[in-house]
Specification:
Layout lengths: L1 E2 L6 H4 L8 H6 L2 H11 L9 H8 L7 H6 L1 H14 L4 H7 L1 H17 L2 E2 L8 E5 L25 H13 L4 E5 L9 H10 L3 E6 L6 H10 L3 E5 L5 H8 L4 H14 L4 E7 L7 H11 L3 E6 L16 H17 L3 E4 L4 H4 L3 E4 L2 E4 L2 H11 L8 E4 L4 E3 L10 E2 L5 H6 L4 H5 L21 H8 L13 H8 L10 H8 L16
Parallel strand pairs: 3-4, 3-12, 4-5, 5-6, 6-7, 7-8, 8-9
Antiparallel strand pairs: 1-2, 10-11, 12-13, 13-14
Helix pairs in contact: 3-8, 7-8, 10-11
Length: 508
C-alpha cells in the first residue's frame, strides 16, 4: 500500500486522488499516529479506551463532567468534522450507534499500526460475512454452495459466541448473516442478540420464505438492524422455476411485507444475470411499490456450482449500463441503491457501498473516504466465515482458506493472511485494474478474477476497460463458454503475470 507521508505527492499523482481533506494532513503526521495509538488502546478493567470514552461523551448531556473536560480537544475536532459533513446530527448518531464509534476507533488503531495508507491497511476486519448454515430449501442455479445439507463440523453455539466476541474485541462493526438460509437455524436470534450486546450492527440475508409475522417479531426483539430479501425477478413464474420451488416468490414477497409491518428495516436484492437482466427495471419498481428502504444489486460471480455457468454472466457493456441505471434510480432518492460490484463506486460520487450496504455522504468527503475504504472489500476490510469455521477473503473464494477459528483466533488469521498485501495493493495488479485512475474506488472484483483466471491479482473481466480480456474468455460474440483449467493457463500465458512479493497467487 502507498503510505501517506507529510508533503507526499500522492495528493496530486492521479485524478482519482485529487480530493483531499484537511484531516488527512494531520493523520499523516508521525506524532498524531502515536497519539491515536495511545487514545485507542484498551485500558485495564474494561472501562474502554480514551477515544471510546471521548466519543461516548461527545454531545451527550448525561456524560460525566470529568469526561467533557478531559476530552474537550477531541470534541472540538468532532465539531469541525460536523461542519465539514454538514450533518448536525453526527453527535447523536455517534453516541446512539455503537458501530459508528467503533468504526472511528478501528480507523485510529489501524493508522497507529500501519500509518495512513491508500487504500487503508486495517488492523482487523470491519465486516464479517457469516455463512451461518449450509441448509437451504431452494435450488437456485447461480448459488455458490453445492451442498445445501447440514455439515458434521458446524460451529456450536459456544463457538459462535466466541467468534462474535473475537470480532467485537477488535472493533469490527458489522456482522452479515447469510447461508444457506440462515432462518433455518434455531440459533440465529441468540447470535443476533449477542452481537447487539457487543455493539455490532447486524444484517440478515434471506430468501424471505420463512419470515412469518411471528419470526419477524422475534428478529426485531433480538435487535436485528436490517434484513435483505433476495428476489430473482418481478416475474413470479420465472422466479419459482429458477428456484426450483413452486410458490417461493410469493413467500418472499410476504416475508418483505411481514418484515416492514414488524418495524424492521427491509431491503430487496437481486443477482442480475443474462436470464433476468430484462427484469431489472420491473424489479426496481417492485421494490419501490413494496416500500423497502434499499435495493441491492448482487454482482454475479461464477463460483461454486455456478462456475459451470459463465455464459449467464453480464458482458462489460451490460454491467456498465446496469451501473448507470442503478445510479439513475439512486439519484431519484426514493430508496437506497447499493451494489456488490466495485464498479458502482465510480458512478456514485457521494455514496459508499460496503458488503451490499450503501451510505450517502457529502460528495467530496465521500471521495476522500472512498480512496481509503472503497472498492472490493475481500480480505481487506471484510472476511467470510463458513459454517464449519473456515475463514476466507470472500464467500466466492471457498478454496482460499486463510485459517479456521477452531484452531486460531480470528485476528491472527486476518493479520497473517498470506494474500493480505495482494488484496490491498492495487497498483501491483495486472492489466487495467492495476493502472486505472479509479482503482482506489473500485479495484475490480477479486473473486471474479479468481474464478475466471485463477488469480486474485488479475483484472476483473467484467469491467468495460477489460473488453479485450472478456472477448478472449467468452468469444467474439460475447457469449461465455465454460473454461477449463488448461484453457485458463493458456490464456494467462499471454499476459504478464509475475508473482506479487513472492506470494502464492495462483491456485493453492
Amino acid at each position: 500500500m502507498k503510505k501517506v507521508e507529510q508533503n507526499d505527492s500522492i495528493f496530486s499523482q492521479t485524478e482519482a486522488l485529487a480530493d483531499e481533506h484537511w484531516l488527512e494532513r494531520w493523520l499523516s503526521k508521525g506524532w498524531v499516529r502515536k497519539i491515536l495509538g495511545t487514545l485507542s488502546k484498551d485500558r485495564p478493567g474494561g472501562i474502554g479506551s480514551h477515544l471510546e470514552r471521548a466519543l461516548q461523551s461527545y454531545g451527550n448531556k448525561n456524560a460525566p463532567q470529568r469526561d467533557k473536560f478531559l476530552y474537550w480537544p477531541i470534541h472540538k475536532i468532532m465539531e469541525r468534522i460536523k461542519t465539514d459533513v454538514n450533518n448536525p446530527e453526527i453527535a447523536s448518531q455517534i453516541s446512539e450507534h455503537q458501530w459508528a464509534s467503533r468504526s472511528i476507533i478501528a480507523f485510529a488503531r489501524s493508522i497507529n499500526r500501519y500509518g495512513l495508507t491508500v487504500p487503508q491497511s486495517w488492523s482487523g476486519p470491519l465486516f464479517l460475512y457469516w455463512d451461518f448454515t449450509t441448509k437451504c430449501n431452494l435450488k437456485c442455479g447461480h448459488c455458490y454452495r453445492k451442498d445445501r445439507q447440514d455439515i458434521e463440523d458446524e460451529l456450536d453455539l459456544k463457538q459462535k459466541f466466541q467468534l462474535i466476541d473475537q470480532f467485537a474485541a477488535n472493533y469490527g462493526i458489522m456482522v452479515i448473516f447469510g447461508g444457506g438460509e440462515p432462518t433455518l437455524s434455531n440459533e440465529l436470534e441468540s447470535c443476533i442478540q449477542h452481537c447487539k450486546e457487543k455493539g455490532l450492527y447486524t444484517s440478515l440475508h434471506s430468501h424471505g420464505g420463512f419470515l412469518s409475522t411471528e419470526r419477524c417479531e422475534k428478529l426485531k426483539q433480538s435487535g436485528l438492524d436490517y434484513i435483505e430479501v433476495s428476489i430473482e425477478s418481478a416475474n413470479e413464474e420465472y422466479t419459482d422455476k429458477y428456484r426450483g420451488v413452486s410458490g417461493s416468490w410469493g413467500k418472499s414477497i410476504d416475508g418483505i411485507r411481514n418484515g416492514i409491518a414488524s418495524g424492521l428495516n427491509v431491503g430487496m436484492s437481486m443477482c442480475v444475470r443474462q436470464d433476468n437482466l430484462a427484469e431489472v427495471k420491473a424489479t426496481l419498481q417492485l421494490a419501490q411499490q413494496e416500500g423497502v428502504c434499499q435495493f441491492t444489486h448482487i454482482n454475479f460471480v461464477p463460483a461454486g456450482q455456478s462456475k459451470e455457468q459463465m455464459q449467464i454472466d453480464l458482458s462489460p457493456i451490460q454491467r456498465k449500463e446496469l451501473m448507470e441505471l442503478l445510479a439513475e434510480y439512486r439519484n431519484k432518492g426514493n430508496m437506497g441503491i447499493a451494489s456488490t460490484a466495485p464498479q458502482y463506486g465510480i458512478h456514485c460520487a457521494d455514496s459508499l457501498s460496503f458488503c451490499g450496504h450503501s451510505f450517502r455522504l457529502e460528495e467530496k468527503l465521500s471521495r476522500v473516504i472512498g480512496k481509503y475504504l472503497g472498492g472490493c472489500t475481500a480480505g481487506r476490510t471484510s472476511i467470510c466465515v463458513g459454517p464449519g469455521g473456515d475463514v476466507t477473503p470472500c464467500v466466492f473464494m471457498p478454496e482460499r482458506i486463510m485459517g479456521n477459528i477452531k484452531e486460531s483466533k480470528l485476528i491472527e488469521i486476518f493479520q497473517t493472511n498470506p494474500w493480505r498485501d495482494l488484496l490491498s495493493e492495487r497498483s501491483e495488479r495486472q492489466g487495467n485494474c492495476g493502472s486505472c485512475k479509479d482503482r482506489y474506488y473500485c479495484g475490480g472484483c477479486r473473486a471474479r478474477a479468481q474464478n475466471y483466471l485463477n488469480r486474485m491479482d488479475h483484472s476483473d473481466p467484467g469491467c468495460i476497460l477489460n473488453q479485450k480480456l472478456w472477448s478472449q474468455l467468452h468469444g467474439s460474440n460475447g457469449q461465455a463458454t465454460t473454461m477449463q483449467v488448461d484453457q485458463q493457463k493458456e490464456l494467462l500465458s499471454n499476459f504478464d503475470t509475475p508473482s506479487v512479493r513472492g506470494r502464492n497467487i495462483g491456485k493453492s
